[in-house]
Structures are given as C-alpha cells and as structure tokens.
What we know:
- By secondary structure, the chain is α+β, with helices and mostly antiparallel strands.
- 33% of the residues lie in helices and 23% in strands.
- Helix 9 (285-298) packs antiparallel against helix 10.
- The longest helix has 20 residues, at 36-55.
- The radius of gyration is 24 Å and the shape is globular.
- It starts with a strand and ends in a 9-residue tail after the last strand.
- The model is unreliable at 372-377 (pLDDT under 50).
Amino acid sequence: MLVAHQDVVPVQTPRAWTAPPFSGELRDGAVWGRGAIDNRGSLIAIVEVLNGISEGEEQLSRDVYLVSSHDEEGLQSGAKAAAAWFQEHHIRPEFVLDEGSLIISDHPLTQGSVALIGISEKGYATLRITASSRGGHSSAPPTNTAVSILAEALRRIAADPFPRHYGGPTKEMLDTLAPRAPFTTRIAIANSCLFAPVLERIIGASPQGAAMLHTTMAPTMLVGSPKTNVLATEASAWINYRIAPTDSVAAVERRARSAVAGLPVKLSLDGPFRKPSKVSSSTSAGFRQISDAARRTFGAVTAPAPVIAATESRAFDGIADNVYRFQPLELSIAETEMIHGTDEHLSVHALQKMMDFYYELLRTTAIQVPEADRLPD
C-alpha cells in the first residue's frame, strides 16, 4: 500500500511567498505552492508511475493499493475509513509506505546523505490546564490570580520533563550509521551501555535530536482575561505532547498531575489523542526493498529511524504487520523548514527522482517481467 494525502495546511502570509501559494507555478525549475512537498509531490509521483505501468507493456504481478485521504492535516477520518475498508474486505498488505522521514543531505552524524526510513511514530495528546480565581479589577489584585496559578502550574510541569532514553528506533538508527561516524562517536555507539549518557547529551543538543529520546511537551495556547485591566476568573493553557514508544497517554496525565499536586488547577485531555505506533521491523523484506530502492535511486546510506511528527499511517497499524514512513525526497536540514512554512516548493528534478524511486520499488516488488525479457534459468 502506497499512501500520500491530498490536503494541505493553510497559508498565513500569502504575500510573503515568491509565487502565489496555491498557483502551482513552475518557476526556476521548481513547482511552487503549498503542498508541493507535503504531500502532493509524492501523490503525483505515485500516480504518474502507476499510470505509466498501466499504459506500458509491464504488468503488475500483485495488487498495489494507493490510498490518498482528504484530511491528514485534520481529523484523519479518511485514513480511518480506508483502514476499515481493508479490514472489512480481509485484505492485509505486506507493508504500508507513507510519508514521514526523508533523505537528509547533510546528516550531522555522517556529513552526507542519509535516507531515514521511519519505523515508528510518536503518540499524541493535548492536556488542558485550567486555574480559577476571584475576578475583579486589576487595581486591587489578590495574592494569587488565575493567571499566576496557571503560570506556576506550567513552571512545575516544565521543570519535570520526561527522562531521555537511548534505545529503540533511535538506537537502531545510530547502530546502522555508526560505521560512517567519526571514530570517537563509533566507540561510544559500540559501547552504548557505558556511554548512553554521553550519546543522550550529544543527540539531545538539538530540539530534533532531543525529540528522538523522550516524550516531549510544548505549551502552545493560552487564554485568560479578555481585557488588560480585568482579572481573569479562569485561565487555561494547552500543552501538546508527542509520546515516545516507551510511554503512554496515561503516563502523560500521571506525570502532569503529580507535578501540579497541591495547586488549585484542573487537568483534562482536550481533543483527539492516540498512543504511540507499534515499531515496525527493520529486517523485513519490505524494509529491505524500500531501503534498496532508496540506495539505487539516490545513492544514499539508509537507516531505520523514529518519526517525531505525526502522520496518518498509524491508522494502518491494525491492517499490516509493518508500516513504514519515508518520503523519497532529498533536502538539507535548512530546507526542511519549507514544510508548513513559506515558499514551499519542489524542484522538477526532485519530482523525477520521486518517480524513479516509486518505479524502482514497484519494479522489485510488484512488476511482472515480460516473457521476452526474462533471463534463461
């Protein structure tokens, strides 16, 4: 099963774009527009390859399913409906391939191109913390206001982060990349039972690296008084959690409640939440086929990796043994800022490489070689 969603995130500052964000303009050898990378580029590449196969002499020797939903960036009901269809029809794909990780051209460990194939995905939850207090005029405030109580609750929660843990998909990634790392790093990875604290410190030096080691939390929204001179009777904050495979939604609630014990605040889950995905195999035939196609197409080193963001592929955990998250696109770390950002664009060359990857993957997994082209036994 090949997965690529159609919908895109909004554009907040369209005038800041080089080309109109919904024009799909072809300029300077690239297609400009929201969704060029996330995720319509992949969708177009998959459709083009499947169309090419259907119109040519090659034939598929097995079923290949394309799933493209309308609301990956929202409630993700499309993926859930697709998963239900597969279950209803008792169809179990060998593997699922969706977006997630990609090829980093300047990977900090190898200083070269690394194709990161996602084998896991974090869970997701948002906690709402609400503090209440007597309202009134700001000229005569009480000792503790709703806002000050809320601020203390946020401080306590932030002061008690989830511990970092070197293991799981992150360890698999570094074990795979170790031969191409500097000598001292190779020694630390080979002896991770002794040097785990050192590795945690090195990996955790960047926000992206730290997110691979533990459950993260980020206060994202605040609501208080509607006016500057009015005391809020109620103040709320929302903390978004991305939950590591070793944790759970229940663990998120327990830790937050423990941190704010004794404060007059209420905690509740707000909106959809989900547990971490299962960890897919990095030794399966499907993983090898994806990895080989990436190596042949891009000449990049490949490695399993955790995915710290969210995709809709978790909906397919129940219908396939292995779900992989990899977009065949090579970007530098700086270029990844285009995703959900200003001036998102995809070069025509990159689009062709995407098509090359999907064809290579299908060639080795699902295309029947014409009789005339078969090699003798």
